[in-house]
């Protein structure tokens, strides 16, 4: 297998999770309105965390964020932690691709 195919296969779970969150944000999230105490919203935070850290770590970060979001929380700006060596690219639609897929 080539590096392109392996890179694509490794990103499938991450992009499935991104797709699920995008559907949630488009269909279900508007029904609740603007109720999150933090900015960005918990779903946007989790989306960014999964894009940058993968499904396992991103889901844990998102769950921790949701647990912090309660009526007594101070709220405020709380961005997902950055990853120092992020080696992928995020498309305008939010999906994660290998840099090898961008050229060629």
From TrEMBL:
Pfam families: YidD. GO terms for cellular component: plasma membrane. It is found in: Cell membrane. The keyword Nucleotide-binding does not apply. Could be involved in insertion of integral membrane proteins into the membrane. NCBIfam families: membrane protein insertion efficiency factor YidD. This is Putative membrane protein insertion efficiency factor. It comes from Paramicrobacterium humi.
């Amino acid at each position: 297998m080539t590096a392109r195919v392996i890179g694509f296969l490794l990103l499938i779970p991450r992009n499935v999770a991104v797709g699920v969150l995008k559907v949630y944000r488009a269909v279900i999230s508007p029904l609740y309105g603007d109720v999150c105490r933090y900015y960005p919203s918990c779903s946007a935070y989790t989306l960014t965390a999964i894009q940058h850290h993968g499904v396992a770590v991103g889901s844990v970060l998102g769950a921790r964020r949701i647990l912090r979001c309660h009526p007594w929380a101070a709220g405020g700006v709380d961005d997902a932690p950055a990853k120092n060596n992020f080696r992928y690219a995020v498309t305008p639609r939010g999906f994660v691709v290998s840099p090898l897929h961008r050229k060629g």
